[in-house]
Amino acid sequence: MPNIFLKFTDTLTHQTLKKSLFIIFLILLVDQSLKFWIKTNMTIGEEFHVFGDWFIIHFTENEGMAFGLSFGGEFGKLALSLFRFVAIVAIGWYLNDLVKKKMPFGLIFSITLILAGAIGNLLDSAFYGLLFSNSSWHSVAAFIPEGGGYSSFLHGKVVDMFYFPIIQGNYPEWFPFWGGSEFIFFRPVFNIADSSITVGVLMLILFQRKFFSRKHDSDDAELEVKDEDSEEVIDQNIEDKKKPIDNGYEKQEKDNDRQTI
Q1: DSSP string covering 246-259, please?
Q2: Where are the domains of the chain?
């Protein structure tokens, strides 16, 4: 029974890990395919409306942070890329540990989304500067240009394209600092990798209690199974030890009866 249980859990662990890797592959495939198309077909600032004025594909690039944010010039860009690489290694190790511990798949799925998003944006910053020419307001980037890319390794720009200006208006004149200025929600432009990270983080925040309570329940159930298996083994050992003694006792009784006769 214990061997069967271990083989079953090993099979589940292997299947869960394969699911996570497949999800990462799908997210990266869609993310990088869309970025490649945007980069080689649109100029900076070019856009087209998908649904009215609230869902727009708008091409922009940033220095590597999520939702179009930038960070600290060339040194900041390098530091951010290195930090992202270290974070990916740490998240990958944590994901593998969660799978081995048979944590709830909802938790594993959340971490998988975060890892996929981090890898997606790292690919941009690591390789796009080497693989593409510079995108401008008047020219589309070329893939693998003759003169080389627009930047060096880990200094590429992240491609963003999703823009959802759902609410537009102006702040009231009396509003501090921004009175009378334009108000747009949601202003940041982002990509699929950003969305993957955001959804993963939101799932962790919203369902963390559910995730970890399920783990405690599964631990208790697994412990009960192991306890039952241990009790069966102990009982069997006791029975095995009794048999020779009982047989010896019966033989001695029969010998005594013969001598009496």
Answers
A1: HHHHHHHHHHHHHH
A2: 2-213
